[in-house]
């Protein structure tokens, strides 16, 4: 151990003539630990929010979606879908017909977005049908009797089912605003459907307003024979969605446009990133306060050790060595607090990620619990910030110690 570090460690462990110096040193360590732990937990929460929202959004929606610019739907879609399925990076493609409807059961009703699907294709591009908790999506498969049932099958979200008071086997009345023109005017189309499955993705936006039915049933409900609204694509690298989308748009020809999961959720992820930066800045102020405590503690230490410093300098210890003694002492205090804070912060984050003990309102936050996702890189960044602030706090007291004149300090000893 070099001389300066040895003296710094001895000063840190030595009994104080003034108890307040030791108390402020302990407070400094606790302050650094609290600031570092708070930063670790806050960054773990923001990372967890971003990760969970991204996973659920990407799992619940297509990576890339192709649709007509005019909004009148895609006719003769089968040859086009077969062509685009062979494009590079495309893993799966599924047709879909979307439409807003009113779903009611007795006195209960709620708006929903219907998606007409072919289940075998839909399962390859999205995960919503894989999150069915009650019933099954098997009855959505096309059959020889499809179109002749009195109540065709439908799969709805868990929160929508609670709003309607519906369970598997119940009948729902689905009303489409795209009605039929009669002598009495435009009459909405309506049809009864039978609930065969209820999914629970944990993402409120989908659980409260999404419903699936067979593509053929949705085409009859919306009076759109052999037409789809969009094609959904799953690709091999979701971060290349924009590049692959442009290729698909060019291959589809004029009159088509694409959107992807990043464009659809750009503002959400931008807000999460801004929240992470603001949270880091605000909680870093705790570390700044702890650094000020280190400055006070070292300043009082210099005042207490003035005679010792003068004796060491009279024995030939240089001013630079004295400066490094107090620099090392400040870094030791900061290092103890930083290590303690990282341990506490990671312990709290790991406990939060395993037990999910903080629950949220999914109607507000889109997820039902507070996620934690601690990262090593965050710990390194927080440690670097903590040590840097503490180093700045040691500059003044260490410089003051180096300017002590031995003759003046020992004159009256």
UniProtKB/TrEMBL annotation:
Q: How does it sit in the membrane?
A: Multi-pass membrane protein
Would you say which domain of life the source belongs to?
Answer: Bacteria
Tell me which UniProt keywords the record has, alphabetically.
Answer: Cell membrane, Membrane, Transmembrane, Transmembrane helix
One Gene Ontology biological process = lipoprotein localization to outer membrane
From the record, give the transmembrane residue ranges.
20-45, 277-303, 324-352, 372-396
| Entries under InterPro entries matching the protein | ABC3_permease_C, Lipoprotein-release_system, MacB_PCD
Q: Which residues form the MacB-like periplasmic core domain?
A: 25-250
Domain ABC3 transporter permease C-terminal stretches: 281-404
| Annotated Gene Ontology cellular component terms | plasma membrane protein complex
Subcellular location(s): the record lists: Cell membrane
Q: Name the protein family.
A: Belongs to the ABC-4 integral membrane protein family. LolC/E subfamily.
Which PANTHER family does UniProt cross-reference here?
LIPOPROTEIN-RELEASING SYSTEM TRANSMEMBRANE PROTEIN LOLE
Q: What is this protein called?
A: Lipoprotein releasing system, transmembrane protein, LolC/E family
The record lists the organism as Granulicella mallensis (strain ATCC BAA-1857 / DSM 23137 / MP5ACTX8)
């Amino acid at each position: 151990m070099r001389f300066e570090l040895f003296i710094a460690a001895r000063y840190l462990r030595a009994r104080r003539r003034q108890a307040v110096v030791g108390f402020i040193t302990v407070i400094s360590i606790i302050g650094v630990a609290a600031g570092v732990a708070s930063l670790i937990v806050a960054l773990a929460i923001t990372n967890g929010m971003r990760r969970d929202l991204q996973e659920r959004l990407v799992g619940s929606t297509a990576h890339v979606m192709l649709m007509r610019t005019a909004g009148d739907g895609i006719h003769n879609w089968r040859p086009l879908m077969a062509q685009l399925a062979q494009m590079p990076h495309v893993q799966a493609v599924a047709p879909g017909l979307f439409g807003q409807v009113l779903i009611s059961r007795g006195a209960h009703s709620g708006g929903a977005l219907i998606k007409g699907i072919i289940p075998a294709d839909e399962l390859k591009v999205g995960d919503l049908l894989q999150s069915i908790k009650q019933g099954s999506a098997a009855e959505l498969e096309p059959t020889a009797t499809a179109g002749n049932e009195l109540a065709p099958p439908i799969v709805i979200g868990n929160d929508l089912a609670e709003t309607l008071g519906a369970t598997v086997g119940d009948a729902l009345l689905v009303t489409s605003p795209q009605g039929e023109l009669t002598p009495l005017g435009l009459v909405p189309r309506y049809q009864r459907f039978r609930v065969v499955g209820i999914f629970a993705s944990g993402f409120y936006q989908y659980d409260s307003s999404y419903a699936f039915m067979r593509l053929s049933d949705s085409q009859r409900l919306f009076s759109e024979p052999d037409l789809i609204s969009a094609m959904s694509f799953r690709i091999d690298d979701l971060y290349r969605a924009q590049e692959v989308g442009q290729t698909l748009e060019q291959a589809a020809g004029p009159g088509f446009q694409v959107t992807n999961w990043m464009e659809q959720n750009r503002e959400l992820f931008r807000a999460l990133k801004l929240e992470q930066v603001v949270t880091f800045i605000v909680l870093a102020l705790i570390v700044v306060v702890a650094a000020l405590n280190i400055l006070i503690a070292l300043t009082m230490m210099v005042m207490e050790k003035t005679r010792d410093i003068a004796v060491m300098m009279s024995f030939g210890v240089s001013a630079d060595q004295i400066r490094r003694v107090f620099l090392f002492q400040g870094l030791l205090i900061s290092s103890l607090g930083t290590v303690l804070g990282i341990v506490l912060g990671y312990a709290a984050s790991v406990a939060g990620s395993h037990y999910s003990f903080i629950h949220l309102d999914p109607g507000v936050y889109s997820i039902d619990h507070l996620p934690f996702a601690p990262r090593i890189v965050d710990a390194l960044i927080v440690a670097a910030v903590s040590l840097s602030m503490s180093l700045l706090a040691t500059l003044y007291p260490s410089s003051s110690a180096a300017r002590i004149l031995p003759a003046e300090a020992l004159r009256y000893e």
